Amino acid sequence: MREIELRAEEFELFRRYVYERVGISLSMQKTTLIKGRLNKRLNQLNLTSFREYYDFLVSDESGEELSLFVSAISTNVTSFFRESAQWTWLESYLPALVASKKEKKLRIWSAGCSSGEEPYTILMFLQHHLRDFEEWDIKILATDISSKVLAKAIKGHYEAKNVEALPKEIVHRAFDKIRTENGINYQIAPHLQEKVMFRLYNLVTDPFFFKNRFDMIFCRNVMIYFDDPTRHDLIGRFTTLLPKGAPLFLGSSESLTSHRETLKLLGSSIYQRL
Ligand SMILES: C[S@@+](CC[C@H](N)C(=O)[O-])C[C@H]1O[C@@H](n2cnc3c(N)ncnc32)[C@H](O)[C@@H]1O
Q1: pTM higher than 0.85 for the full model?
Q2: Are residues 212 and 267 located together in one domain of the fold?
Q3: DSSP string spanning 187-227?
Q4: Which residues line ligand 1 (CB under 6 A)?
């Protein structure tokens, strides 16, 4: 593989573009990371400079290349039942939520859902804790900017090592075992899968088209690359979609310094709409 140099003025082009299109704020220290992660892509495309790649990226109207670019420079790391303290909190919150409902209907948004572990965890959690789970009309909107991770999420097919640490009872009800040439893998069960609507969606530039509000929003470990104004704006838009009392879940390393008048910290990066 040819090693292609990333010049300072080229880095500046990417820095501006990615900020405008995705809200990701790249510091100069990321030069080596971008060069390292994108060299392979340039070689695949038979390009000889980062300037050529920049032109290719901005002219791709499908958004596919932007999605690949974002996957290359950020992380899609996720797991089932990530941030365990939040699931413990949700267990204590669920009875009040159920009691407040006139209809057995729940609408939840997993914003920045990566390969699907988060929305499927929400369903596994609800299946485990709602006795009459089957009677509920539950829809999870699961969105991400990367088509690559969404394709994996839609497939709902996971390696044993990512599933087998979960409680057996949950695994038994949520997955079908499938035999592959690499051994046993796990396929999310159709009755759960059909409750998730996966959509390609850019949280920074796409319009908020939602007609109804959500009972809770998860946006965990997504805003870590955003700068303060972008984060501020997005949180503001989330609050318009949450009814009073509803929770907003962020990643455990994320905290809010703004929106104190509309969101109250309950602990473990869980905020409640006031
Ligand atoms: C580290 S993963 C977090 C996955 C999951 N929420 C969790 O906490 O396990 C971050 C995800 O955010 C997505 N993402 C980053 N910027 C985004 C944007 N502007 N719009 C939508 N999704 C974005 C990435 O593609 C990635 O899949």
Answers
A1: yes
A2: yes
A3: EE-HHHHTTEEEEE--TTTS----SS--SEEEE-SSGGGB-
A4: 22-23, 70, 74-78, 82, 112-114, 118, 144-146, 149, 202-204, 220-222, 251
